[in-house]
Design brief:
The complex is a heterodimer of chains A (107) and B (121). Chain A is built from no helices and nine strands. In chain A, strands 1, 3, 4, 7, 8 and 9 form a six-stranded mixed beta sheet that branches. In chain A, strands 2-6-5 form a three-stranded antiparallel beta sheet, with no helix packed on it. Chain A has strands spanning 9-12, 18-23, 32-37, 44-47, 61-66, 69-74, 83-90, 96-98, 102-106. The termini of chain B are far apart. Chain B has 121 residues and is mostly beta strands. In chain B, strands 2, 4, 5, 6, 9, 10 and 11 form a seven-stranded mixed beta sheet that branches. A four-stranded antiparallel beta sheet of chain B has the order 1-3-8-7, with no helix packed on it. The chains are: A mainly beta (107), B mainly beta (121). The interface between A and B is medium-sized, with 28 and 26 residues.
Chain lengths: 107, 121
């Protein structure tokens, strides 16, 4: 089965840019989605099809996917962005797989 | 507005079968534009994709769970369900139902609130 790897934690200062990577073999050949999850809440879809944002998601969230790495970028990070972030890819569609998650700390 | 609501026992005995239902309102499970899926999250851990079903009954499962999972759909009740057999403590988790579009690369845009299922010995 296909595996996605994320760093357990990333730290960023308020107002700076946070980058959260997601690693997988030939990941660029698959579409990647990103989710934000805050404690006690259901995940929220931030990015789909590598780079697209659903309506209502702030423009400071963006995604990219190249080679073996997909990246979620948060520009002008705010305290409200402190949360767990998960990447998700479709293996043999539509069989999904999640990364292990990254805890973003805004210091 | 689409709403998904999980329901089922919060406590299941080890070796028995976990059964959950997701009731959909504000939308139809008979739509050809969507898949209906299950995702779980053990306490303090990450998300795990379980499987998904299409309105026609076609199913796709996580290979690591395939031997124990059955997802079904009831279009007359606008519901879909999850059965997980031979459960152990490792199956203790918050179980979410969610919807994703059929278009390639779509994400799970709509989620239920989740329901905690504890497996007891």
């Amino acid at each position: 089965s296909y595996d996605l790897t994320q760093p357990p934690s990333v730290s960023v200062s308020p107002g700076q840019t946070a980058s959260i990577p997601c690693f997988g073999d030939e990941l660029e050949s698959k579409y990647v989605c990103w989710y934000q999850q805050k404690p006690g809440q259901s995940p929220v879809l931030l990015i789909y099809q590598d780079t697209k944002r659903p309506s209502g998601i702030p423009e400071r969230f963006s995604g990219s996917n190249s080679g073996n790495t997909a990246t979620l970028t948060i520009r002008g990070t705010q305290a409200v962005d402190e949360a767990d972030y998960y990447c998700q890819a479709w293996d043999s569609a539509p069989v999904g797989v999640f990364g292990g998650g990254t805890k973003l700390t805004v210091l | 507005q689409l709403q998904l609501q999980e329901s089922g026992p919060g406590l299941v005995r080890s070796s028995e079968t976990l059964s959950l239902t997701c009731t959909v309102s504000g939308g139809s499970v008979s739509s050809s534009s969507y898949f209906w899926g299950w995702i779980r999250q053990p306490p303090g851990k990450g998300l795990e994709w379980i499987g998904t079903i299409y309105y026609s009954g076609g199913t796709y499962y996580n290979p690591s769970l395939r031997s124990r999972v059955i997802i079904s759909i009831d279009t007359s009740k606008n519901q879909f369900s999850l059965k997980l057999t031979s459960v152990t403590a490792a199956d203790t988790a918050v179980y979410y139902c969610a919807r994703h579009e059929t278009s390639k690369g779509s994400g799970h845009y709509s989620w239920g609130q989740g329901t905690l299922v504890t497996v007891s010995s």
